[in-house]
Amino acid sequence: MRLSGYFVPTLxxxxxxxxxxxxxxxxxxxxxxxxxxxxxxxxxxxHRVLRKVEQIVREEQDAAGAHEILxxxxxxxDLWQQSGRYxxxxxxxLRIKDRHGxxxxxxxxxxxLVTDIFRSHVRSYRSLPxxxxxxxxxxxxxxxxxxxxxxxxxxxxxxxxxxxxxHEGAIRSYNKMFIAYLKTxxxxxxxxxxxxxxxxxxxxxxxxxxxxxxxxxxxxxxxHRDWLTDDIRNRSIDMEGDLQPVVDSFLGRYAATDDKHxxxxxxxxxxxxxxxxxxxxxxxxxxxxxxxxxxxxRVAGPDGREVPVHMGSYGIGVSRLVGAIIEASHDDRGIIxxxxxxxxxxxxVNLAVGNEACTGVCDDLYAQLGxxxxxxxxxxxxxxxxxxxxxMDLIGLPWQVIVGPRGLRSGVIEVKDRRTGATExxxxxxxxxxxxx
Length: 437
What we know:
Layout (H helix, E strand, L loop, with lengths): L20 H8 L3 E5 L2 E4 L1 H20 L3 E2 L5 E3 H7 L10 E4 L5 E4 L4 H11 L8 E10 L14 E11 L2 H21 L4 E5 L9 E8 L5 E6 L19 H8 L3 E3 L15 E16 L3 H4 L2 E3 L5 E3 L1 E8 H11 L1 E2 L2 E2 L10 E5 L5 H16 L4 E4 L5 H11 L3 E5 L1 H5 L3 E5 L5 E4 L1 H9 L1
Parallel strand pairs: 3-7, 19-20, 19-21
Antiparallel strand pairs: 1-2, 4-6, 5-6, 7-8, 8-16, 9-10, 10-13, 11-12, 11-13, 13-16, 14-15, 17-18, 21-22, 22-23
């Protein structure tokens, strides 16, 4: 992609409404634009990141055995009246009427609708366990939307729902999602910690929220230092085996937010206690028959008797994750994208657009990187070198390749690691080999 023909409306100054790092950089880097309070348009660069985050979430859901569907954003109110939540949910639910006067709502979540799908098609325990998920836009009418995509009214969410014959099976499904979530965040370069949580309007008696560590996070977090070094990707885990010992190994390690941390009764030695901040990016629930009972989600068990299925629900804020990644990975010059979610992996900076040698090297590098399957963005604008380098730092691509006439006279170009700031001069051929490795 050539920046001269790409729509990336970067800003020099920070908009006054942006209070946190992710909101500031998402606006300045041209990732989003506010449409109204708490509602954003995703511009090309931001949309690329959003889709990469979504795809990682999708791949881990598929690997855990969940099946993707797509449910509508607008739901009929009668299902929510059957479950008893229509009047209980609160003002966050946007209630509307269609032209025939029927009560409708813009879905804040999908327990009722997915239970209706289940009850329409599943009759026997032999079809269980079953896990259905979708990635869809939600709307919750926050009284004070703020912090950009971190606390918006409209947001992209992955939500899925498990159906099991009994409590024992439901816990197996719960544990599978617990592990799948940790794998999902690790793939995005995030350090996520599961913590026991309140169930809120979803209901149930078992719930965990996943907190991503970030120094600019909304909650203070106290945890054992082992959380900072353990990477679930280094563990060999049989997702079809008994996952309870694996889950217990995580939950047995101390972690608490400030509202649950008791300094006088903390089980962690002071030298092993890490105090940082974090951002909630996911929440999982087990709620038994809370929805299957009133909505008729029943199956015939092994003895032929009909019983309500046991359910769980599992949510990941996909659009919120984009903001969380920036909160966890940035510096005073801009975003630092982890490679798996970066809009492009490499930024090619042509410092002298009118110079035939510089343009030729950039074009050759772009073609070679493309042939190697590496997404690259060429800054071929007629701008000052300082402005180009500042913009490249702001948008935060993992690697920068800087091509200028002075270096080419010696046969070299500069390769910069955005995360560390380390630079190295090398030939164009060596740079291509390094980036393709």
